[in-house]
Amino acid sequence: QFHKPYQIQDAYPRPEVVDGHDIVIRVAAASFCHTDIMVLEGQFSSLPKQHAGSHEPTGTIVSLGADAAALGFKLGDRIAALGWRGLCGECVDCKGPVDKRYYCRFMKGYVGTTLPGAFSDFTVVDARYAVVLPDTMSFVTAAPLTCAGATVWRAVQSTKAQPGEWIGIVGSGGGLGHLAIQFAVKAGVNVVAVDAREEGLELSRECGAQLVLDARKGDEQLTVAITEAIGDDKIKATIVLSDHETACDTACTITRPHGTVIQVAQPQRVSFHFRAIIFKDLRFEGSLVSGQKELEDMIHFVLEHKIRVKTNIYENLDAVNLVVDAARSGKVSGKLVVVLD
């Protein structure tokens, strides 16, 4: 039922390979995302799907289809996967650029949202959106990268910021934001981090943001603080990771004229003043997770640059409702991860 805690089912049948690209994994670690709360609240369907939650899966391959094997996967591989499954192969997106194919409107569904997720002993992922993990990366580190990491990796890339330039991140101190800061800083890009929680502000500082500002002080004071610290019209693009009703307005305020606002957060409606797009000539983009190649590149970047994935670990599925409570509290710093195996 919507708006109810998860129910733990002890005897859940192990899924079978149905499609050639199917990979069945024994789940090792799965992390929790704000989207999981949206699923629990019924924002993605009119009726409950009765599926396990979590679209951030990692684990070991226990069975796979012929097409997955042809792509080089094999039994026993340690993998991480994005949630996309069963693209149609025929629509304009599927026949377009590889990095846009996951926008397919006719796919089978998304793990943990419209299809069974990773809060389960076993789950099914699509080989076209899976990668083999390096031996030096743990499942606990990898799980948050399959959504939180992949999402902000693409968003940071979309800013097109070059070393020495500035970007803004609104909602900088959460599970996505702390990774976005590090991805940018390690690439030589300067970050103005904006958050409205003490935990978020502290984590933003820890992750290396050059300027950290408290959104609760209001947009006017933010503008003054930015000008005093780095000068006028420096922020080339701003990524919105907060679903607060004023977050996009804040992004518009701090972004320089002719700049770009990249919307990642998913509130029911995105709101901003008309002056933002008319008088400042701002550009707006939406950004949604990423593709397989981007996931692979990001994982190697995380290892090479020693990116810190801050996690809060919970043992076993019995803890999933504690995870939900922690997420709803708004006091969490980093990502919530459930270890299953």
From TrEMBL:
<keyword id="KW-0862">Zinc</keyword>
<dbReference type="GO" id="GO:0005737">
    <property type="term" value="C:cytoplasm"/>
</dbReference>
<dbReference type="InterPro" id="IPR020843">
    <property type="entry name" value="ER"/>
</dbReference>
<keyword id="KW-0479">Metal-binding</keyword>
<dbReference type="InterPro" id="IPR013149">
    <property type="entry name" value="ADH-like_C"/>
</dbReference>
<comment type="similarity">
    <text>Belongs to the zinc-containing alcohol dehydrogenase family.</text>
</comment>
<dbReference type="GO" id="GO:0004022">
    <property type="term" value="F:alcohol dehydrogenase (NAD+) activity"/>
</dbReference>
<dbReference type="InterPro" id="IPR011032">
    <property type="entry name" value="GroES-like_sf"/>
</dbReference>
<dbReference type="InterPro" id="IPR036291">
    <property type="entry name" value="NAD(P)-bd_dom_sf"/>
</dbReference>
<dbReference type="GO" id="GO:0046872">
    <property type="term" value="F:metal ion binding"/>
</dbReference>
<dbReference type="Pfam" id="PF08240">
    <property type="entry name" value="ADH_N"/>
</dbReference>
<keyword id="KW-0520">NAD</keyword>
<feature type="domain" description="Enoyl reductase (ER)">
    <location>
        <begin position="9"/>
        <end position="338"/>
    </location>
</feature>
<protein>
    <recommendedName>
        <fullName>Enoyl reductase (ER) domain-containing protein</fullName>
    </recommendedName>
</protein>
<keyword id="KW-0560">Oxidoreductase</keyword>
<dbReference type="Pfam" id="PF00107">
    <property type="entry name" value="ADH_zinc_N"/>
</dbReference>
<dbReference type="InterPro" id="IPR013154">
    <property type="entry name" value="ADH-like_N"/>
</dbReference>
